[in-house]
Each structure stands twice: as structure tokens, then as C-alpha cells.
Amino acid sequence: MPIKKIAFIFLFFNIIFLNSALAQKLTEVDKIVAKYSKSFASTEKLADKINKDFSSDYDKARAVYSWIALNIKYDYNAFLNPPKIQGFSYSTEAEKQRKLKQLNDNLIQKAFKSQKAVCEGFTALYQHLAELVGIECEIIRGDSKTRLADIGRKNTSSNHAWNIVLIDKKWRLIDVTWGQGYYDSSKGRMVNDFNPVYFDTDPDYFFAKHYPDSGTYLGNRISKDDFLNGPLIYNKTIENDNKIKSPDSGILEVKSGDKITVEIKNISKSDQVFYLNKRNQPVKVQNPKEKRGSLEFQILADNNLGDYITIFVNTNSIVSFKIVHK
């Protein structure tokens, strides 16, 4: 068979697989929104379409999330080379608020028209569209935890933003920036990969990866130490509700011969569970025990253990810990 034909067949089946994987992620609301135009004449036209197709606030909020995540791409170049902060002068508080609103309106329209943004554009556009469909929405700014190096960081920084929406008298957490995809360091580019887990995310999972500048959520204090020193969790952790029952710290002080006990919810002996040693070789966990809807196993701390350890379940990364060798 000619090489070109083989390549075409491979590409064809790869597209089918990717489309099938995306279809499995989509709710009925997402499937409707996925058929929308990729561009609208105005945000008001998009909001009118959402109001026409959906009746409940929950479905409208989800529709806004889906359209943005499916159509607005993360502008990684703008992230690497942020524009200079635009200053302005004013003589009255009313003039200040008017100019701030104009800057925000420009940010919204730029994200909507160019279909590119960083988190500020994503959150501003989400808030704008949510309010157009009649949903109360706010923007929260804070820190994010995405890399191994974030485990055990000393301080938080204000480097991210997300939304909360009020639906049925309950505030819901939303990060539409992370819903649209992720950065693939091996390819050096953003990968568009719609992910529903950052819509109405469980607060326990959400605040393992987010820390608000205020240090509070709905008046409740959030532990900065838990955020900084907790383990790093991944999208599949949230999607599969793989709560990390043990260890509760992301920083593990061990000496040679110690055994690290790990317990993860919603996995069983039938799952393939392994970690990578410091040479990036997979090591299958030995003698796992099923325990109250979880799987418990031990990892031997030896010379093959690197500075970080990531647990995989069926090839999906679930949790990472920082190893401190005594």
C-alpha cells in the first residue's frame, strides 16, 4: 500500500477517534452549542441564541461555558509577551469608573472578535455573556497550581482568574480558561481540548488548584498551606472523582527503605496503576488492596525514586508528590 494512502488512513481514523472522544465528553447542552456558528455578529446575538435554546439558568451558564471553551483559544503568545498596562488619568470617580468600563468592554470585544484571549479575556467574556442571559456572575483573581514545581512553593501570586455564577441560590465555580485546553510542553504549544470538569467544579478539587487573592470563598477561609503544600492533581482526578485519601501532604519526607502508603478513591485492582522512577521507567504498584471504594498500595522509597513521583491510573496522571530525601 502506498505510503500516502497509509498516512491518509491513519489520519482518518485518528480524526474519528478524536471526534468520538470529544462526543463522549459532551452533555446535551454541549452538543447543541457545538453546532452553533463559530462567530456571531455580537455578544448580544449569541446571548439571544442561548436564551432561545435553553430555559434553565444552569443550562444557560453551561452553554456560555461550552461556546467559549469550544471557540476561544488561549493566546499563549500574549501570555509570554503581555501588553503594557494601559494607564489613564481621571478627575472624578465617575470618570474613573467610565474609563475602567471602557477598558473592560474593549477586552471583551477583543476576545470575542479575535477569538483569542488569556484568562482575563476569558473571564471577562464569560461574565459579560452570563449577565446577558440573566445570570449573576463575578470574576475572582488568584493563584493557580499546574506544575510539579508548584508543590511546596513558599508564596502565592496573583497569576490567574476564574468565575463564579449564582444558580438556584448557589454559587458555582467555573474556570473556562482551563476548559478550552492545555499547554503541551513537549510540543511547545497550546492544545485545544474541551474539558467539562471546570464547570461547576467541586470546591475541594477546585481549591486544590486555585487560591483566591482574598484567601476566602463565600466568607470561609481557605488554607494557604493546604494549597501550597498539597499534592498536584490533574483533570482526570476531578473527572473520575479520584480523591486522594492518603497522603494528605504533597511533600513526602522519606529515607531509604520507607514505604509510602497511597490511597485513591474510585480505582480498583482491575486498573493499571503505576508510577515513573527517576529514569522515567514505569513501575507497577505491588500488592494493592481494595478498601472502602478505594485502592491502597505502598511505594518503596529507594534509590530509584526521583525528586517527584506521579501516580498514573490506566495511563492517566492522577496525582504528583514532591519527594524530600532525608
Automatic annotation (TrEMBL):
SUPFAM superfamilies for the chain: Cysteine proteinases
A Pfam family that the UniProt record links to this protein: Transglut_core
Domain of life, source organism: Bacteria
Name of the protein in question: Transglutaminase
Cited InterPro entries: CAP/Cytokinesis_protein, Papain-like_cys_pep_sf, Transglutaminase-like
Species: Flavobacterium endoglycinae
Domain Transglutaminase-like: residue ranges: 111-178
